[in-house]
Each structure stands twice: as structure tokens, then as C-alpha cells.
Design brief:
The protein is about 40% helix and about 20% strand. By secondary structure, the protein is of the alpha/beta class. The strands form three sheets. Strands 2-1-3-4-5 form a five-stranded parallel sheet, with helices on both faces. Strands 6-7-8-9 form a four-stranded antiparallel sheet, with no helix packed on it. A three-stranded antiparallel sheet has the order 10-12-11. Helix 1 links the parallel strand 1 and strand 2. It is globular, with a radius of gyration of 17 Å.
């Protein structure tokens, strides 16, 4: 049974999330502030975290930052009541895998939860360990090294890179990337792909003005080249 941690201080939202997820067959644990949630996420094994940004004691952005700093790659679905783009972008930059703005549809949230869990559990047997340039990526262990030194990728960035490598030398459209990496039932903007590609390039390319591994094809999409 998949285990999900909800870190949310609004009682009505917390109860609704807990009820819906339990009805779907998930095991659910809850925390009502960032400090409690951070401790639980570090001490227990979860398949997914649902994390609100506005939390008492420690806010959700800091919780996300600390978890990723400690090497905890559990997929994170971030919730925010704010509509400002900066909060969403900052959450993704700190390592969140997806976000939703309140109020949200329970059906859409469940679809995103399933998509994140599906991605995290996908088999990568065809390219468990893959090397290109001075980079080696172990997709089974979620580890990436550049010149022998570990560097951090989010779970979604691992999935995005794996998809591009799997279809290396082929130009993949933004829509096909969204369908296969984010999931067909998850509703996100195509420009979300561009944002995550940019983040991935920062970590693997030596010269961002002249990328040699992830190449953009104007008006079409992206391709991976060894």
C-alpha cells in the first residue's frame, strides 16, 4: 500500500484530502505544521508528500528545501493559496515535482497523485545506468554524478532525462513529453516543459548558451544527443 504524508494546517482541507486518499486505498499520515512534517518526512518512509506552502513554524518552501538538501527524493506535490507565479516557480526550483493552486478539484488532485506515484515506480531496466559526457546517471538508485561528484536532480528531472535518453536523437514534442512524463490525466501548461528543461540544462550542460546534450528545436520540442 502506498503511503502518503499530508502537511497542511487548514483543518477542512486536511480532512478532505485524508478522506479522499483513504477512499482511494492509500495509507495516509498527517502533519499540521512544517516542523512536524519535516521530522516525519525524515524519519519515516513515504511514497509521496502533499505539502502546503503556507505553514506554521516552518513554511513549505523551507521544508522542501531541507528535504532535498538531505537527499530525500520523495515526490512532492506542493499546494499554495497564492496565485503569484513566483511561488510556484520557486517551489519547483527548490525540488517540488508538481504544484496545485487552491481551491482545486479533488479529482484533479487524485489524478496528479497517481501520476507522481506512477512515475516514481516506473521500471527503468533498459537504461538503469547511463553515461554521457562527464555525467553518469543511475536511474534505479536516483543518483547522478558529474566528474565523479554527486549532484542533485528532482524525481521529475530524473524522469524527464530518462524519457529524453530513451528517445535519444529523436525530436520529442512538448505534448508527448507532458503525456509521458507528467501523465495524460495531469493538466499542466506546455511551457512547464520549458521550465524543467531549463532547470535540467543548468545541471548537466557546461555552457548554457550552447547546450550539446538537450537540444531545442524551435516550434517542435526537444531532443537528447549523447
Amino acid at each position: 500500500m502506498k503511503k502518503i504524508l499530508i502537511i497542511e494546517d487548514e483543518e477542512s482541507i486536511l480532512m478532505a484530502l485524508e478522506d479522499n486518499l483513504r477512499l482511494e486505498g492509500y495509507e495516509v499520515a498527517c502533519a499540521v505544521d512544517g516542523e512536524q512534517g519535516l521530522l516525519m518526512a525524515k524519519e519515516q518512509k513515504f511514497n509521496l508528500l502533499i505539502l502546503d506552502i503556507m505553514l506554521p513554524k516552518i513554511d513549505g518552501l523551507e521544508v522542501c528545501k531541507q528535504l532535498r538538501k538531505d537527499g530525500i527524493n520523495t515526490p512532492i506535490l506542493m499546494l499554495t493559496a497564492k496565485s503569484q507565479e513566483i511561488d510556484k516557480v520557486l517551489g519547483l526550483e527548490l525540488g517540488a515535482d508538481d504544484y496545485m493552486t487552491k481551491p482545486f478539484s479533488p479529482r484533479e488532485l487524485l489524478a496528479r497523485v497517481k501520476a507522481l506515484l506512477r512515475r516514481a515506480g516506473q521500471s527503468r531496466q533498459d537504461t538503469d545506468i547511463y553515461s554521457f559526457g562527464d555525467i553518469e546517471v543511475d536511474f534505479a538508485r536516483y543518483e547522478a554524478r558529474k566528474k565523479g561528484k554527486l549532484f542533485y536532480l528532482t524525481a521529475l528531472e530524473f524522469d524527464l532525462l530518462h524519457f529524453l535518453i530513451k528517445h535519444r536523437s529523436q525530436v520529442m514534442s512538448r505534448d508527448s513529453i507532458l503525456d509521458e512524463v507528467w501523465g495524460r490525466n495531469v493538466y499542466v501548461q506546455p511551457r512547464t516543459v520549458d521550465k524543467h528543461i531549463a532547470d535540467l540544462r543548468k545541471k548537466i550542460e557546461d555552457d548554457l548558451s550552447n547546450p550539446i546534450h538537450i537540444i531545442g528545436v524551435r516550434g517542435v520540442g526537444y531532443k537528447f544527443i549523447e
